[in-house]
Amino acid sequence: MSKELSADVVIIGAGICGGFVAKELAEAGLSVLVLEAGPRWERAQVVENWRNMPPINKSESDYATPYPASPWAVHPQLHPYNEYPQVDGPDASAYRQGVVRGVGGTTWHWAASTWRFLPHDLQLHTTYGVGRDWAVTYDELEDYYYRAEVAMGVNGPNDTTLKYVAPRKQPFPMEPMPYGPADRLFTEVVARAGYENTPVPQARNSRPYDGRPQCCGNNNCMPICPIGAMFNGILAITKAEQLGAKVITNAVVYSMETNSSNEIVAVNFYDPDKNSTRVTGKTFVLAGNGIESPKLLLLAANDQNPDGIANSSGHVGRNMMDHPGILMSFQAAEPVWTGGGSVQMSSITNFRDGDFRRDHSAIQIGMNNTSQNHKAGVKALQMGLVGKKLDAEIRRRAACGMDIYVNHDILANPDNRLRLSTTKKDGLGIPFPHITYDVGDYVRRAEPSSRKHLQQIAELFGATEIESTPYFNPNNHIMGGTIMGHDPKDSVVDGWMRTHDHRNLFIASGGAMASAGTVNSTLSMVALSLRAVDAIKKDMLHA
Ligand SMILES: Cc1cc2nc3c(=O)[nH]c(=O)nc-3n(C[C@H](O)[C@H](O)[C@H](O)COP(=O)(O)OP(=O)(O)OC[C@H]3O[C@@H](n4cnc5c(N)ncnc54)[C@H](O)[C@@H]3O)c2cc1C
Ligand code: SF4
Predict the structure, then answer these.
(1) Residue ID of nearest Cα to ligand 2 atom 8
(2) For ligand 2, is residue 220 a contact (CB within 6 Å)?
(3) Is the pTM of this model over 0.85?
(4) Nearest CA to ligand 2 atom 5
(5) Which of 202, 250, 363, 527 would bridge with 144, disulfide CB 3.0–4.6 Å?
(6) Known catalytic residue: 477?
């Protein structure tokens, strides 16, 4: 006989979204059980794994390798590429996502840039006649943004004259960190061509905050902050556990049971040996990120919901979005010294919004402040240099190497679709996700001017050895697969993240986001998850 477990609220996924839902609901006195497909990692061990990684993986920014993927909770690995998820379509290159699966989730190795979207991002269709509107307005989300910022510990600029900074009623919890040498120089140089380079809001401590130390600026954020100055999902989960939430690791949820009212009554998970456990609950929250959540909903199709759970609209797995990017690398004429401070400190915001959005994508332009040391070392060795010449070349490349980028605002397109793979399965026999992706003409119309911006910035730095991606690259901001809307016929969840089809099933992830904006999306995901928390509390505590 299989085992049975039960809780008031059952949460699937122990990433940042699941972590905050667990923490808030445990704090409210509800019994909370979190089912996490992957293992539990120790910070010190991951730091050690990173130190021992081959130089080539480091030079190619392979951040997943220090977090070994389990056969039962496969996550994308780029070097070597493990085809998770499978991707095809005209712009498959733009959907090679980074995700890690384990307690704490993908924010273990994120950059912690925590932007708010702009009010127009949430009302793209109403404002510019393209794309879709969210089922919640900026004004309705503002308090949740602030709650998310306080919970995570976000530092940011309170200067209201900065271009296209989202409106806010309260100041950031912390003052911004000082720029390192590269961000100072970049700001000064691009200003000559009229670009306004502004501080990025970041979930890392510019002063001791919430029992965690101040960031010491040693630039190791991706793949791990060795001292925990950067916020990540493990911190939310730890708080949830201290408040009584239970986390079961290596628990891969694969099915959902529904009753005659089409409420969820139980989910079932496999352990690594494929033993099954049934878990009953009153409310269920799917927090498996924007790829795994739609995958599970499709996988869990049952007699009552033959096209998948929460999928009467047919929109589960549709509208998959990220920020299609273009990356340019070059050697500047003079030393820039990227690598002082955190990995992303500033960004050009001039083109985040404007009437041009009727015709083509808005963009974010920036410089990666990631240290160039690994790249410089591998390149100098490949040149066959030895001794003092090798040292000098590594130093020159580490000082002068720069990576700049443009990220585009993609429109929701139902044909950008996740299905279950028919050819690839994980160690438990569960199909891989298979995604078809096309960035669309809206992005393509912006591409020529995006490339001109990058070229102009490179010229300002007297660039040589200029290389840029001829294709669109991904940015790990997974949005759209369980899209929100007011109409149950063309959306999966409402403005409270409640699925239209199942009264007691909520989705806490970027999957709900109905437009992509130009900026990193996790703060918005957390804000939406906190909205789900309020709806659940209303159901369960004030019924
Ligand atoms: C290198 C990198 C840098 C990034 N930098 C930024 C940044 O600067 N700013 C920003 O906003 N975003 C950034 N992101 C994106 C950010 O990490 C994600 O948006 C965020 O982690 C999503 O959180 P989540 O809780 O939805 O999902 P995740 O963190 O992916 O967690 C989901 C969890 O659910 C579990 N799960 C899934 N399915 C099941 C199942 N069936 N059963 C049980 N458990 C399941 C998974 O194993 C996983 O642990 C970055 C991402 C990467 C890869
Ligand atoms: S710069 Fe260093 S201390 Fe600061 S968040 Fe990144 S890894 Fe942590």
Answers:
(1) 225
(2) yes
(3) yes
(4) 230
(5) 527
(6) yes
